[in-house]
Design goal:
single chain, 71 residues, mainly alpha, 70% helix
Length: 71
Amino acid sequence: MRTDAPRFQAGLSDRGFETLKRRLVDLVEPLSDHQLLDLADGIHDLLRQRRTVRRHHAERMNDRLRDGLPI
């Protein structure tokens, strides 16, 4: 079970995630290194975008709290 990051949205159960991970590995096995790296880059970009949105949201909430505005 991962505890390194909080979950902000409902996701898969641990069992469902492990099943998905196994299936995904099976699906990407035939890809070339270039294709696999391209896929990984796309996933990494998605993660960066999510983190950026979360960071901006947290900053806005902190600004509102600091300024005494209702959330």
